[in-house]
Amino acid sequence: MAEGLLAARGGAVADTTRAALLEVDDVVVTFGGVRALDGVSLAFGARGITGIVGPNGAGKSTLFDVLAGARTPQAGRVRWDGRDVTRAPLHRRAHEGLARSFQIARELDSLTVMENLLLASPGHPGDALWRVLFTPGKVRDAEAALRERAWALLTRVRLAPLADRLAGELSGGQKKLLELARALMLSPRLVLLDEPAAGVAPGLVEVLAEFILGLKAEGTAFVVVEHNMDFVASLCDRVCVLADGALLTTGTFDEVTADERVMRAYLGQVA
Ligand SMILES: Nc1ncnc2c1ncn2[C@@H]1O[C@H](COP(=O)(O)OP(=O)(O)O)[C@@H](O)[C@H]1O
Ligand SMILES: [Mg+2]
What we know:
Layout lengths: L5 E3 L13 E10 L2 E11 L4 E5 L6 H9 L6 E6 L2 E2 L5 H6 L2 E3 L12 H7 L9 H6 L1 H21 L15 H13 L5 E5 L7 H16 L3 E5 L3 H7 L2 E6 L2 E6 L1 H5 L2 H11 L1
Parallel strand pairs: 4-9, 4-10, 7-8, 8-9
Antiparallel strand pairs: 1-3, 2-3, 2-5, 5-6, 10-11
Bound molecules: adenosine-5'-diphosphate and magnesium ion.
The site of magnesium ion has 2 residues, from helix 1.
C-alpha cells in the first residue's frame, strides 16, 4: 500500500523506491505583498492519488498553476520526470504526459460530447495534409483508434448515451466528467484535478470517484485539490496540507486530520 507517492522533502516520508515524477522545490510565488507560496517543496510519485487541502487562501490554486505550467514561480524549481520544466509552458507539459482538467471552455459547448474528446488530441492526424495525401490508410486507422478511445472513456463516465448531444446541454456534473475524460484522451501519466467534485451532484460524484480509482489501478497518478473532505478521505492515499503558502504537513487523511496544527489552521479561518 505504501507507494511513497508523495514525499515531503526533509519529512519522514521519503520515496526511495522510485524517482518522483513531478516535483516542486522551494517554490515562491508572490502577488504584490502577498506570498501565495512561500518556499514549498513537494514530490509526487508516478502512482496513487495525492490530495492537496488547506483553508481558503492557503495557496492551493497557486500551487496547482505552478504544477501545471500556468504560472512561473518567482523562485524555485519545477521538475517533471527528472527534467527542469520551471519555464516550460502548459501545452509542452501536456504533450509529455502531464494533464490538467479544465472547466469546459465556452466555445466547446457548441460541439458534441464526442467532438470535445476528439478535439482533445493535439496533432490530430487528419490535420496534417501530407499524411492525408500519402498515407490515407494510416490516418483512418489513427482516427478510428481515437474514436475507440473516446468511446471507451465516455462509457466509463456514463456519457456514451449522450455522445451526440451538444456539450452545452450537459449538467454541471456531466461537464466535469467530460472534462476529465478529455484530459484522459492523451493517456497522461499524471493528472492534476482542480476541485473535481465541486458542484457535482452526489450520484455523479460516485461515478467520478469510481472513474478516478479505476484509472489509478491502471497506473495513472493524480494530484487533486478538493474541498469535499469525504471525497478526499475516500480517494487520496496521501494528503498534503497547505496553510499560509507553506506546507503544514503530509500524511494519510486520518493522520493529517488528527494533527492539531491542521485543526488550528482551519479554525483560524472560521474565527
Ligand atoms: N491573481 C492573484 N492576484 C493577487 N493575489 C492573488 C492571486 N491569486 C491568489 N492570490 C492570493 O494568494 C493567496 C493564495 O491564493 P490561492 O492560491 O488562490 O489559495 P487557495 O486556492 O488555497 O484558496 C491568497 O492570499 C490570494 O488572495
Ligand atoms: Mg483556490
